[in-house]
Amino acid sequence: MERFTHNVGENMISYMDQGVGHCVVLIHGFCGNHNYWKYIVPHLVKKNRVLTIDLRGHGDSSTPKNDYEITDMAEDIAMVLNSLQIERATLIGHSLGGYVSLAFAENYPEKLSGLSLVHSTAYPDSEEGKVGRDKGIKRINEEGIFPFVNELIPKLFSEKNAKELTNQVDFVKGIGYKTSDFGAIGALEAMKNRPDRNDILKNLNIPVLLVAGREDQLIPLDRAFSVEKSNITHSVIEDCGHMSMLEQPDKLTEVLITFLENIVDSKRE
Q: I need a surface site. Which of 44, 112, 241, 252 has the fewest CB within 10 A?
């Protein structure tokens, strides 16, 4: 299927544009790409225009020569939407994609119809988490991306699913291997440096969906569900770790479709 590109300064952002209707932007996680959403997109495109974007340093997008922040990745999303003359969209961000979505919400709230964080958090890295990022950077610098990905990916699944869903684990590893060393390092630095954005969640008045896996080894429920508010829905995916789009795609699809239908209905009122 054809993919499109848009130049943002010296960087090239790759994306897929499918369907018609309310615009939904799917943003993958760290060491991922648009293929993370392969089971979700066919259902969403039935009633929506769906963009699946490869973040800078990932997938088919280019890797910047210099360091960058989460806000820079959010700016890439904004530039793509501007180039397509899309005034408002719902952003659905997985993990790192959630951090990018929150940064987008901070800078472009007027462009959002809705926001969903899937296995993500508005909290910054803990001190322990920052040490882990530095260890990851050191390992990639010394050994390259393959050993890093081999250690990381099984942790993204629940312990049970990591053993049973071996095809999906291998699928995610294959995507991770294609991430450039500097792309992964740049993203690790950006994630380590990101600020607390809970105030962004608290101040948003659009529909917000927070999705968490019951058995997520990276982001537990209390960090995923950091804000309670009337416009914010909390959804727990059972028998799932950090990768519901691959571990429990039917359940995640159901949750997202309900969320999007509510947004479209509210726009008609």
A: 112
Residues spanned by the domain of 27: 4-268
136: tokens are: 């990851």
CA 229 and chain centroid, separation: 22
Q: Which residue has the tokens 């322990």?
A: 128
Positive/negative CA dihedral, 121, 123, 128, 132: positive
Residue pair 254/44 in contact (Cβ under 8 Å)? The answer is: no
> How far, in Å, CA of 26 to CA of 161, rounded?
23
Q: What is the CA radius of gyration of the chain?
A: 17
Give how many domains the chain has, as a whole number: 1
CATH number at 158 reads 3.40.50.1820
pLDDT digits (tens, 9 = 90+) for 90-117: 999 999 999 999 999 999 999 999 999 9
d(CA 47, CA 33): 23
The H or E element containing residue 258 is helix 249-268
Q: What is the pTM of this model?
A: 0.97
